[in-house]
UniProtKB/TrEMBL annotation:
Residues 6-101 form the Replication protein A 70 kDa DNA-binding subunit B/D first OB fold domain. It comes from Artemisia annua (Sweet wormwood). Keywords: DNA-binding. GO terms for molecular function: DNA binding. This is Replication protein A 70 kDa DNA-binding subunit D. The keyword Cytoplasm does not apply. The lineage of its organism: Eukaryota, Viridiplantae, Streptophyta, Embryophyta, Tracheophyta. CDD domains: RPA1_DBD_A_like. It holds the Pfam family DUF223.
Amino acid sequence: MTTQKTYISQLTPELNPCTIKVKVLRAWCYREAKMPATHRHFEMIVVDEKGDKIHVIVNNCRLTFLQSYFKDDMVVLLRNFSVIPNNTSYKYTKHPYKISYDGFATACRSNTFDADVNKIGFELTKFCDIISLNLDTEIPVDCHKSFNINTECVLDIEGEIFSWECELRDYEVYGCKTKMLPLKLKDTLGIKLTCLVMGIMAENLLDYIKSAKNCNKFSMNIGNARVYDDGKGPPMIYINHQIGSTFEIFE
């Protein structure tokens, strides 16, 4: 059977087998809180030359070499994958489908990519839209009763850090203990937003802030943040490396 080259916008379960040429925008490893360390998912967000994005997930520790092989901004050819509905609680892209590797799959590097695509792939959300929950309904809405959260979605933002706590807080998620750093952001209009930085990202960020002793404000770009409204105050965002969040910080 011939493997055809196609674009992300054309992907459907019926189209297999096919090959796509994409650039890796973000790549991360994810593990369920209650699962053993060996039970991991490797995940990516990729974009093709037309600018369309799709979420790629490698299930149950398959192809673990991908974590060290695939890097942000790398161009690759993906083959022998499954195309499945993008119907989980969190959707990292607006595409109705996502790519899944559950068994044998192939991937190789490519040296050409005919598109001017932002390396990080930011699609910025305004602070006012977060505060008012005026968010794209194609991005997921989820309900986590254990956290009393009634709205969650994945988005990118940029803002200025103007306030932060001097010490990390202890926090527990699904029975697993972690660290949290609350901080305050504001945009160019002065609209303020609380950001909860979780896990190793909290430790790294606080270390960086403490090392910049002569700076009292920072600019920050955040990717794959999740926003939620607990009904007790304005909506907030949180970031965690295990859900693919990224950040860049500038003095």
